[in-house]
Structure formats: structure tokens, C-alpha cells
Amino acid sequence: MVKLKQHTNIALGYFLLVGLLGILLRLFFVTPIAANFRYVVHAHSHIALLGWVYIGIVTLIYKMYYTEVGHFKTYLRIFWFTNITILGMMLTFPFQGYAFLSITFSTLFLIASYFLAWFFLTKIPVHYKAKNSYRCIKASLIYLIISSIGPWAIGGVMATLGNTSIWYKLSIYFYLHFQYNAWFILALAGVFFYILEKAGILIPKKDFRRFFNLLNAGVVLSLFLSVLWVKPPALFYTLAVLGGFFQIIALYHFFKLTAPGWSTLHTQMSPVIRLLLKISATFLIVKVLLQLLTALPFFAELSYRYPDFVIGYLHLVFLGVISISLFAFLVYFGLLKLKKRIFYIYFTGFILSEILIFYKGAAMWLGLAFFSEYFLLLVSLSSLMPISIGLLLYYNLQSRRYISKSR
């Protein structure tokens, strides 16, 4: 038997650790810290993407399609092996950065992700294969595999050209692009289409195909946004702009396709879930518009010269689009209990810290005044996020114990 609520709490535990590591990173600018900043950055980013988001999405996919399959032992072996690799990265990256042990655990994680993709792609019940939701999930898994080319390339680049080569950064950007814009987004879209399907809301295949093809074209072409900082030939800018436009058009079709179902879902979703989905949809629109802006040479150069804009964007997508969507879907499937006041603490910390991050980038760009207590304030406001996640995890662990005792 697969205890999916337990898996959700494991994902939340990773999210809490990510938040604490984020606070530690910001404390580096407030007080001396006996640690290596870059090593902590590596740990922070790996646990964020491979711990909280990966485990959260995987738990949702299993909940939707595979609880009836009966191959739970195979899934659990893959799941726990994956967690061993994540814990290995958690215990090595902060102390040695990219070195033998951390690279070993990272490599093992990639192998585990291949096994997981194999499980999800081959054990799917036949009656789900033609569903719109599974088409999104299947594509997301393919992009997950494609994204792994980036980490494999990094090893070769470091061994031959070194980490100062542009190919080192391009390998990282390749990986992040297919993680943020393909694996995460398509998987979450698949979850939403699944909810529509279960509610009896049918979307015509022709209309879905148009959305799906536009989104995939946008994903592939917007990869060129990641190379504009090297000032490539004009063709690359054209392809990047097309990718940005395709994503906007795909988003328009997504809202058009799903809008009729909202009246039905309104009666099936709690006010908290509806609030979370509306917030994440708003940030998704902002994300796509910001991506299109970076196709313009001026903004591409701006984002390269002032990393705070990139950091702010990545946090916007991770904390605003992906994490809030995960909250909503985990609550919908009964895998998470989320009180509004806990979410408001999280949301306050997220919004205020985003404002400060983008302010720093704008201040450096425009030569604006930069107040002396900036980093202390950033630490204080950012602390609201791990506090809220800690409260959320505690509340869910207590709920689980109460349910166990009452049986």
C-alpha cells in the first residue's frame, strides 16, 4: 500500500528545508557564516526542484492514475531510492559543492527519474491513455528525461572546458528551461485536466490538440531565450520571440478551454482551492509575459547584467506558480490540509520578498538609493515562508496522528 499522505509530508519536509536554506543564503549578507555560499546555493536549488516539487508532482500523478494498478511495490522501491538520492545530495552539497559524492547522488537521482518515467509510461491503465490529462503527463515525463541532458552535459563541460565556459551556463539553462517550462507546467496542466475529466467536463479533442501543439512549440522555441545573453545571430531572437508568442497563445487557449468548467468546479472545490488556483493562474500570466519580454535584446541584456531579475523570476515561478498550484491540487485530492491563515503567512512572505528582490535589481540598474537594512529586512520577511511551511507540516502531521488514534 502506498501512503500518499506520508509522501506529501515528506515533500513538505523538503520544502521546509529549502526555505531554511534560503534564509541561510540571505544571512550571508547580514553576518559572517561559517559555510560556503555557492555550496549552499547548490543544495538549496537541488532540494527545491528535486525534493519538494518533484516528490509533490510524482505523488499527484500516482494518486490520479496508479492507485488501481497494483504495482505498488515497484513504485515504492523507486520512490524510496529516489529519496535516498535526495538525502544524499542534501548531506553533501552544502559541504563540498560539486564533488564526487554529490555528483554520485545527483547521477543516481537521474537514473531513479528514468525508472520513475518508465513506471508511469508503461504501467498506465489502458482507459487513461487517450485522455487529455494523460497526454500532458506523458509529455511532461518526456521533457523530464530531455531536461536531464543538461546535467549529463555539465560533467563533460567541467572535465574539458571548465565551469567558466559559456557551455557550462548553457547546460544549466537547458536543464532549468525544460524543468520550469515543460516538466513542471505540463504536469500541473495534466492534473487540472484530470480534475475536469473527473467532473465530467469534456474538452473536444481538436481544441485540446491546438492548445497542446501550441504549448509544445512554445516550450521548444522558447529554449532560445536561454541563449540570448551570448548575443547570437538574429535568427535566435526571432525563434525566441516566436516561442514567447506561442506560449501566450497556448495560455489563452488553455483559459478558453477550461473556462466553461469553472462553474461546475465551483461547487466541487473549496474556497481555499479556488483562491490558490486563481493566484497561481495570475502568476502564470505574469511568467509568460516576462518570458516574452526577455526575447527583446534590451531585456535579455538587462537580465544578464542584473541577476536579481533572474532570481526574482525563478522565485516567482517556483513559489508563485508551481508551489501554490501544488498546494491547491494536494488539498483537492485530500493529501494536504491547508488553513487560510497559514497560506496568508506564506503569501505575505513571498510577495514582500519578491518586491525586495526586484527592487534590488531595479536599484542597481537605475542607480537608485539602496537602504542599509535591506538584507536584514529581506531575511525577516523571507522567514515568513519557512515559518508557514513548518506550521503546515506540523498541522498535517498532527492531523495524521489524530486520524490514526481515532481508528
For the termini, the CA-CA separation is 17 Å
Shape: globular
How large a portion of the residues is in β-strands, by DSSP E? under 5%
Structural class: mainly alpha
Number of E strands: 0
Provide the succession of SSEs: HHHHHHHHHHHHHHHH
Low-confidence runs of at least 5 consecutive residues: 402-407
- By DSSP (H or I, 4+ residues per run), the number of helices equals 16
Helix residue percentage: over 70%
The residue-averaged pLDDT reads 91
Q: Profile the largest sheet.
A: none
- Radius of gyration, Cα only, in angstroms? 21 Å
Descriptive account of the structure:
- This protein folds into three domains: 1-129, no CATH class; 155-334, no CATH class; 337-406.
- The longest helix has 33 residues, at 166-198.
- Residues 402-407 have low confidence and may be disordered.
- Helices cover 80% and strands 0% of the residues.
- It contains 16 helices and no strands.
- It has helices spanning 4-27, 37-65, 72-96, 100-122, 132-147, 149-160, 166-198, 205-221, 234-258, 262-266, 271-293, 297-305, 307-332, 340-366, 374-382, 384-406.
- It has 407 residues and is mainly α.
